[in-house]
Every structure is written in C-alpha cells, then in structure tokens.
Amino acid sequence: MKKELSYFPKRDAGRRNYAERVRQVFQDYLALKDLRLTKQREKILDVFLSAERHLSQDDVYRLLKKDGLGRVTVYRTLKLLEESRLAEGVTSSSGETRFEIQLERPHHDHLICVQCGYIKEIRWPEIEKIQKQVCRKLGFSILYHRHELFGRCKDCSPKPPAAGS
Amino acid sequence: MKKELSYFPKRDAGRRNYAERVRQVFQDYLALKDLRLTKQREKILDVFLSAERHLSQDDVYRLLKKDGLGRVTVYRTLKLLEESRLAEGVTSSSGETRFEIQLERPHHDHLICVQCGYIKEIRWPEIEKIQKQVCRKLGFSILYHRHELFGRCKDCSPKPPAAGS
DNA sequence: ATCAATGCAAACGTTTTGCACTCCC
DNA sequence: GGGAGTGCAAAACGTTTGCATTGAT
Hints:
Two copies of one chain form a homodimer. Chain A is α+β, with helices and mostly antiparallel strands. Chain A has one domain (15-151): Arc Repressor Mutant, subunit A. In chain A, 40% of the residues lie in helices and 20% in strands. Chain A has five helices and six strands, in the order H-H-E-H-H-E-E-E-E-H-E. The first copy, chain A, has helices at residues 15-32, 39-51, 57-64, 71-83, 125-138; strands spanning 55-56, 87-91, 97-101, 109-113, 119-122, 141-152. In chain A, the strands form two sheets. Chain A has a three-stranded antiparallel β-sheet. In chain A, strands 5-4-6 form a three-stranded mixed β-sheet, with helices on one face. In chain A, helix 3 packs across helix 4. The longest helix of chain A is centred in the N-terminal third of the chain and has 18 residues, at 15-32. The model of chain A is unreliable at 1-8 (pLDDT under 50). Chain A binds chain B through residues 91, 111, 113-114, 120, 122, 124, 126-127, 130-131, 134-135, 138-154, 157-158, 161, and chain B through 91, 111, 113-114, 120, 122, 124, 126-127, 130-131, 134-135, 138-154, 157-158, 161. Chain A binds a DNA duplex through helix 2 and helix 4.
C-alpha cells in the first residue's frame, strides 16, 4: 500500500466549494479596500483555482491574453492577491517567482527540482517547532519565512534507486 | 559564564590570512576558467573582506565608483563570485539580494529584521538534519537551500521584554 | 452615473550586451 | 603581444505609472 503522504485535505469532493470560498475571501478583501471584483480579477483567480498552484505572472498572462487581458492587470491583481494573503510567492528553479493560492492550506515549504522545475510541497512541523523555539530564545519574532530546497527530485536524480537497495 | 554560541571561527587573529585564502580561492577559480585576477576584481573582493558580509551590488558599486569602477564590472564580478561559490546571496528585508563571502564559514541561515534590516546568522544543525532525513526519504537530493526568516529582531520587537516576563 | 479598473504606451530601474580601449599574463 | 577585462553607451528585460476609455455597482 502506497502510503503517499497526503499533506493536504482532499478537496476533490469540495473543490467547487473551495473555489467559492476563495472567491469569497477575495471579494471580502476587495470590499474592505473599496475595490471591485471584476471579470479580469475573477479570471485570474480561476486560473489559479484550476491550475491550483505555482504559476508565474507570465503563465497567467499567457493563459489569459486570448481573453484580451493585459499584463498590467495581471501584475496588479497578483499584488492584490499577495496583499490579501490569498496568494504567496515561491522562488522557482529558474529564479522567477511563482504564485500559489494559500487559503485553508496548512503552511508548507517547497522542494524545487532544478532540472524539471517540479515543486513539491512539504510539511515538517518539527522544523517549524525548532524554528520557533530558537527564534523566541533570541527575541526574534517571526512574521513569515521562506524555506526552499533546491535539488533534484526522485525522477531527475542522477542515481535512480538501484536494484537491491 | 556566558556561553554565547560562537558559530564562526574566530578570525580576528587570522583575518589577514583569511583574506589571503579567499583571494587564493578566487584566483584558483579564475585560473581554472582561464580568467584573470584584476585590480577591480581584487578591490571588489577587498570590499567584501572588510565589510565581511551582506552587501548589495549597489553597496559595492558606491564604495568603489570613486576608484573609477563601473557598475558592469561589479555585476560581472559578483556573478563570478557566485559561480565560484565564494559568495552567496541573501534576500534582504527590502527584497534585494545581498551577498556575503562564504569561504570556510559553516552553513548558516538568516534571520532578517524587516524593520532595521539587520541580518542575523543562525545555525541549527537539528533542522538541517531533519531536512536531510526527510528529503532522503522522498528521494530528493538537495543541492542547496534557502532558509530565511523575516520578522523583528530583539531591538525592533513591538513588545520589549516586559518586567517580570 | 460614478468612480474604480482596464489596457495601452511610455517611463522606470535593473541587468546585460556590443564595442573600442586598457592592461594583465 | 595577445586575449581577456574594463567602462561606456545602448539594448534588453521586468515592472510600474499616466491617462483616456470601459465597466461594475
């Protein structure tokens, strides 16, 4: 039995609901700031919700330019998503920032394959715990952190799991 | 007895030697690549060795433009320093990359104060250990990682250590 | 109808490149 | 002396801004 770690709650069943909750949060944030949920902003959000993660600005732009969406709007909307804390940036293997929707997702860090670009999410509560402890001891209050590991994923590793191992 | 963790070897005594070793490493790297250790490259290295850490490209440029050094050279040399693995970039609180010389310095991560910009280096072998373990289990081979914590340092913390704790 | 949002183009800041001159090896 | 290195200017790149038009509430 492949016990693939299932870090995140299954959302397949409640996917549509999830999308709606995300949209709601965004709308609330916008309302709070006296801003509007426009078609373009919805579309950008939708792209994230169907891709579900790790899109660069350019990815979003290319997916939506056929709808007449401009780069500027993508930039501005991504900024809004970041501000609202709905989206968060991850450094990709090529150095560019990629975004993912964070709502209701437990905090996780990233393993980034420098070869294929695959981004694996990982949770390690132990590490978070040590982090907090050490920082508290030092009087450093953490606001947020970035913990990214660059390397090769299983498939891209130079030495595939040898027989007999 | 204050057992302040002494993360880095005392270099006060051997500082000059250290500088020379750094220069040697750089020269070796350059030789390997059929490149030359020029006055400008030496000067840039010297800036790092006297500042010892966390300089942005602009910092370096401003410190050296009086010597007639151009921005372009700074960019190119910083790239060389990175390639040679002598220097490594850290994300500063304002988001720009700052560089530090890494030779003979044990690996460390960074606590970055978003208020005063102070960068504190930190070693937590336990975390590194867990990291390695987890990644090995996943078949992910780490090449390098970035672990940066953003927050407020002791001095900039909103609530100074209150009386009676 | 109002006022924010959009999209264009132009501005902007940063990094890279082309090229003649310099200088290290 | 030759080829790499430098510095300038210009190009390239990614992001932001100004402004007239569009559109959501």
